[in-house]
Amino acid sequence: MRFLREARYSLHVAFHPFDGFWDLKYENKGRLRMALIILLGVTITMILKRQYAGYVVNFNHPLELNSIDELKYIVLPFLLWCVANWSLTTLMDGEGKFKEIVIATGYAMLPLILIYLPNMLLSNVITLREASFYYLLESAAGLWFLWLLFIGTMTIHQYTVTKTIMTMLLTVVVMGVIIFLGLLFFSLIQQIVSFVYTIYQELSLRA
Questions:
Q1: Which sign, positive or negative, has the C-alpha torsion 100, 105, 111, 114?
Q2: What is the pLDDT of residues 7-59, one digit of tens each?
C-alpha cells in the first residue's frame, strides 16, 4: 500500500508539478527509493526501446547492442547532474539538499517511462509515413521531462525563473568540467601505473 501511495504521488508530481514539488520540498512527500525506482525504470525502458522498437524507427543493430551502455547514457548523467547541481547551488544560495535534488530529478524522469513504453509499442505498427508521430511523442517526452526538471529545480532551491534557467545551464557546464577532470585523473593514474610497471620490469631484468 505504501508503494502504491508513493507511485500515485509520483504521477501527481508529473501532472501537477507546482503542487507536487512544493509538497516534496516542504511536506516531505518525496521518497528516495521511488526516485531510484523511476531511474531503474527509465534504464530498463531505454534498453527495451533499443531492442524492440519497430524497424521503421529503430536503426540499432541487434548484435551491437550492449545493455551496460545504458548505465553510461542514463545513470551516469543522472548522478553527474545531481552532483553538479548540488555543488553549484551550494555556492548560489540554493536551499535544496542533495537528497532533494536526487528525488526531484528522479521524479522528473517519469514522463520518459509514461511515453516511451507505449510509443515503443506504437512503433511496431506504424508505417514509414507515420513515423513523424513517433518522433513527435519522443520530443513531447523530452520537453515534459525538462519542464518537470525546471519546476523541480526552481522549487527545491527557491529560485526565480531567470536564476533557475541560468543554474540549469551552468549545471551542464559543471558536468562537462567534472567529466574532463575525471578523464584527466584516470589518464594520470594510467600513466603513473604504466611508469611504475616499466620501472618494475627494468629492475626485474637487471636482477
A1: negative
A2: 899 999 999 999 999 999 898 888 999 999 999 999 999 988 888 888 888 88
Assign residue 158 a region (left: φ > 0; alpha: ψ between -120 and 50; beta: otherwise): left
Residues 134, 182 contacting (CB under 8 angstroms): no
Give the domain ranges of the chain: 2-206
pTM for the whole thing?
0.90
